[in-house]
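Trying the structure run again after the queue cleared.
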Amino acid sequence: MAVSMRDLDPAFQGAGQKAGIEIWRIEKLSPVPVPKSSHGKFYTGDSYIILKTSASKSGALRHDIHYWLGEDTSQDEAGAAAIKTVELDAALGGRAVQYREVQGHETEKFLSYFKPCIIPLKGGIASGFKHVEEEEYKTCLYVCQGKHVVHVKEVPFARSSLNHDDIFILDTKSKIFQFNGSNSSIQERAKALEVVQYIKDTYHDGKCEVAAIEDGKLMADAETGEFWVFFGGFAPLPRKTARDEAKSIDIVATRLYRVYKGQAEPVEIESLTRELLDTNSFYIVDCGIEVFVWMGRNTSLDERKTASGAADELLLGLDRPKCHVVRVIEGFETVMFRSKFDSWPQSTNVAVTEDGRGKVAALLKRQGLNVRGLMKAAPPKEEPQPYIDCTGDLQVWRVNGQQKTLLQASDQSKFYSGDCYIFQYSYPGEHKEEHLIGTWFGRRSVEEDRVSAISQAGKMIELLKFSATQARIYEGYEPLQFFVIFQSFLVFKGGLSEGYKKHLVEKELADDTYKDDGIALFRVQGTGPDNMQSIQVEPVASSLNSSYCYILHSGSSVFTWTGNLTTSEDQELVERQLDLIKPDMQSKLQKEGAESEQFWEILGGKSEYPSEKIGRDAESDPHLFSCTFSKGELKVTEIYNFNQDDLMTEDIFILDCHSDIYIWVGQQVEYKNKMQALAIAEKFLEYDFLMEKLSHQAPIYIVMEGSEPPFFTRHFSWDSTKSTMHGNSFQRKLTLVKNGGPPPMDKPKRRTPVSYGGRSAAPEKSQRSRSVSFSPDRVRVRGRSPAFNALAATFENPNARNLSTPPPMVRKLYPKSVAPDSAKLAPRSEAIAALTASFDKALPVKEVIIPRSVKGSPEAPKLSTEAPKSSPQGNSKENSVNNVTEEAPKLKPETIQEDVKEGETEDEEGLPIYPYDRLKTTAEDPVTEIDVTKRETYLSSEEFREKFGMSKEAFYKLPKWKRNKLKMALQLF
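Done. Tokens:
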């Protein structure tokens, strides 16, 4: 479509350059900008054009254009608004979706821009109405309809306006009454209260009383009696009342019209397909309540102006002037439009370019205007964030039929592709301990094990009274939260479960389960030491990829292969993973293009391999849907411009982020519906309502109200106090409206965690990572102290390679749940003796109150001066995990003490001690080089008792939230 400056109204120059809303009012048949202070204020005698600009995660700008027609606007103004909308679309590059909005029948998308509602005012510019300022406060009666957005209409102030089906708001000078029809739903009543709050703030400066009146309540209630006095006294309403919009639009068969010379001509069709639409023409698709105008890419601006009026004339002839009219451009059709067709190709041959937008931008730039918003924006570069506290406790079970086996700590990050696993991760939340219970399905796992895993995980969640978040994860589709919980994650081929072995026998397949002495190739991937994976792939050359590093072992030979597109960080991950896969063997470095003959021989010879990085689908802009699920059928309604208040406690909602699917379940949802949450998610993936090619194996999270994890709440402006309120959604909202906010909660603030990604006071990556360097001869340079060498010698084979420095230590307030490995306990006393003898000055090795959790090689020992004991009470989280899972013996947390600096004293725990004034977070001369998450452990016993009023032993017997509260009070947090 050719565009010239004469086609562009000066009022539209520079429009749509940044996210937000812009509004123009039609004055003398021309658009005039409306100031932001008047946005949301519409007059019944006027017509308006509204532009909504949205910025996607990729940085691209999207536009939706609406033209709103007041019920008293003139025909000329309405026609001008329709034509100017086409011009505005041309100014934006000819790709915006255009909507016609008729007062009282607006689309939910339009109303969502002006939450909670719009209340049109009497008056207008060209219509001759005057905007009268009332001296006396006028009592008004409004009717409210809608569950997700509210249609508000002023009705005559009379008893005859009331009915049993709707909600009514009576606005008087000193009080606002909400009358709830007996047939109205809780959700509709709650949404209407948002309108009450709007009226209270807008017309009463937030200073007036609010009363809720229930339909059928008699005069015994004082506020009910006060309400009926305005209507001349109480009298029952008639059982059935006629509504203004009682005449509904009949369901009609979809019809297709071709617009020729401004007239709509019917097209006889057997079925509606994409092939019927010609790029040089215009078409009208009549679907009853919605009418679509399709504009070919090769049509001119003048032709589009003419075609836009054809739909209005068609609707007038069919006596349906209040239908929604949506105009779409070829190549940018909406999901709703495409869904009306029996077949729609995934991609068309239409060349969609930046030409139209670029030409407009060039024209505007010559006039000195900022055109940055019209050009394609570069996608923002953001480091992915897991949004979860990584200092919690992890337990993992392998599923074997109807049973599950708890894995030892050294094996809980080693999964097999033929098996299914259940994991439980408990971490400190904002006000309480949070739990994430998930299932992981290997690519080759059998259906029997998958069903069993879901069933057993469901029982664990039931025992936690549905307070845990549930996750379903497939191999190859793991989210970032999963990897940072496990930190070092390995996936082996084959499986260990009986179901998998039985499957191999039935299908007469060879068992290729991983063996230490066999041939195995691992692809190493990840973003850092807290998020790294080794995935076993087929040991053939075609499995290689220039964007990754690999580990190959065959018998006594170990190779590491680095692709030409890898970075030094990728190569460091290989070193760390090598310590887990083959810790006792020296490897040979193979650079892409300079491989040895032995390397290719093991892989069966050279062959072609890719270079593109493998990745999951990127997260897209989230969409929220309310849903109903009955008899296997799922019905969803999209909620536009959503916020936390849209989540009703009686309902189930779906948050679609494309790469992840969240099912939010309200507290007051019936039990049988709660149990359907996973089925709802699977149905949603199957239907793919937004036609975004959702994977059926995308991660699914079942989120319970009141226990929302931070990786869910980040999509909202979240107030946790709202989800902890009691009552249904109407009762909660009434409390907020009457009290001006949620009741205060006497809860301790969340501590600052040591977490991944730098979201809090976590140490820099360089501080948490091991230092590994490389030499040309592939001999890793080690930086180990004599003490560590003495210790390592106890556990190493003297003929083996020289091990790297210890794996990264993530300081955690809570130890990971551990199952003892008896085979590794025997040499402990000998190792301790070798270690202590190597120090210049022997120091007592004693247990630290808050242990450090060591994440890394399964061979890494934990040292103690005492023999390991099983704790009948479990871990320090007050045995919360053991209430829902089988008992597992735990190792007593132990650690190796650091050298004490000269001149410092040491308390009985083996740590240096400092004065209280230097340990405070507000200290003028704070102590450095300490573990800031446990400042209190550096106090002497005497000063500890003086400040806390108890001994250290008594302090650590307190619940965690009480300990945190005391630390905050003393500024030790």
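The first strand starts at residue 20 and ends at 27. Worth checking whether this holds up in the mutant runs.
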